[in-house]
Amino acid sequence: MQPVSPFLRTAASYAWRLLVVGAAVYAVFAVLGRFHEIAVALFLALVVTALLSSPTRGIARRVPRSIAVAFSLVGSAVLLLGVLTLVGEAVAGESATLAREFREGLDSIEEWLGRPPFRMDPGALSNLQTKVGDYLATHRSALLSRAVSGAGQVVHVLTVIALAVFCSVLFLYGGDRQWAWFREQLPAPARERVGIAGSVAWRTFTGYTHGIVVIAAVNAVLVGLALFVLGVPLALPLALLEFLAAFVPLVGSPVALAVAAVVALAAKGPLVAGVVIALIVVIGQLEGHVLHPLVMSRAVQLHPLVVAISVVAGTIAAGVVGAVVAVPLVSVVWAVHTALREDRLRARHPAQSADE
Fold first, then answer.
1. More confident residue, 170 or 92
2. Is 73:168 a contact under the CB 8 Å cutoff?
3. pLDDT cut 70: percent of the chain above it
4. Contact predicate 73/164, CB 8 Å
5. pTM assigned to the model
6. Which residue pairs, CB below 8 angstroms and at least 24 apart, start in 256-260?
7. Average pLDDT for residues 63-81, to the nearest whole number?
């Protein structure tokens, strides 16, 4: 009987471990998919807690903790509603002008596409608008039924928001005590390692949350100012869209700026649209080579290829929510793995760790 080669033995040992890890990951995603509303609510609650924990601690030095939590949550809610109200008023105020500019812009685009090198049929866009109108008229009942069924999703969204707010209150008020209680329920040998993992995971998640908010805010300010200077309509709503899209790394910002380029093309013509497209490149380079290394260096230490694969995998697994959650999840897992490995090495070589 021929002995098994060391390479094959090593490959087999890694293969069954990968199968176990893959089964565990599949089980986690299956559970999250089954109870995705709860998972989304907990994620939102953790984001709110990461953003408001520092202001809450600062306020709690002067007033009771419960009042500090209420002040932080209510103040952030008022700020959010104020921004949404401002955006809504901007859209309503520019709706008539925007409709006129879009009609004129479509005519200019049609004329531009009819010239070399495109030489498109002059009635192509008009035919497209007619076909869209016919489709809407023909499938009006189906679209209406989808809209009515979609109204049921509003109940799910409100339920998720209510659960997220409730969890945020509990986390902000006594998250440390809840975590300490959870650790006490574990076997004694596991408490220290679980404590290390939890501390590293929360520090990484908090750093990522703060960093992505800073990057999104910088992108939104740059886009809003550029669109305002160029005279593109709906500069404020498009800046808000850029802020939200920046939470999807590598993909979100170009998509939001592509929407801005379409608006600029229809409202201001090809020249301004070309400037907006150039803006896409400049902001992408700024975000990738300046903001991310400067802001995220401590929180996220992942190769861009890992970030890209994580975003695509998250999108396939859970859509937009998966794309948003993927990078912080992978960052937390990697940070915990690194911290536990270093702790294990220190335990094996205490003298060397003491010398270092």
1. 170
2. yes
3. 72
4. no
5. 0.75
6. 256/223, 257/223, 257/283, 260/223, 260/227, 260/232
7. 91
